């Protein structure tokens, strides 16, 4: 089964559109996910991330466009879906299931299930095995999903905001175990989260969705440190920013700052020479400013 994960790309999406009545939740989206990488599917509330994951896992049907998972359509395709694990916040379990029941039944669904790894993760997250699922705290319920997602070792694993309620220690355990296990058992992981800075170093690639459309599709490495903020006198900032893509502007009196989408080493040197202060922009700031600037543009256009 793992041989499937070596096929690149693992996922190809072309012109994917999903409408709910007159509302378009996913709007002509196209992207590839190359095999054996960790992807972040990021964006604001309601951007369309969960809908895309549901379409990719055959749990919802596209209005138009195509999806290929390991070279095949996921729709009602047991061969493909056997290789896919989808961890979502709204996961339902049978009414009277305990934590132990969930982990006993997991191997039926996942051919690569590693029971010993699951045991270690259960201890890491201090999960109470005999407790009913419906009695778990919010964080414990998320931990159950995280353990299943990791121990499934599915060639394609989706985590849709997997850690609602998980405390900072548990989230760090998740990132550490994911990276350690990934290096020994490479597979394709697609993760959606709002805690962008926390996962920034975990991700190989970032796809940002805004209002149902892809607004960024780039290697995380290329994004890290690509943008920058210049600050100084308003005249110097305005002069430097001219002709560049400005994501955000701020100012007070004669002082101003501008966040620029791209700032090369040469640009940084030129800014410093012009008496400007240059600071770096985190992945989270970049995405916040990018999605906020799209919204601002739309508001300006509709005004
Ligand atoms: N069954 C549905 N009927 C109508 N609208 C829907 C349906 N499912 C989703 N939507 C809408 O589609 C949009 C995208 O929703 P989706 O759940 O994919 O967003 P998301 O990016 O996962 O958001 P969040 O980060 O808040 O989880 C939202 O505006 C949502 O209200």
TrEMBL record:
Residues 11-236 form the ABC transporter domain. It comes from Frondihabitans sucicola. This is ABC transporter ATP-binding protein. InterPro entries: AAA+_ATPase, ABC_transporter-like_ATP-bd, P-loop_NTPase. Coiled coil: none annotated. Keywords: ATP-binding, Nucleotide-binding. Pfam families: ABC_tran. GO terms for molecular function: ATP binding.
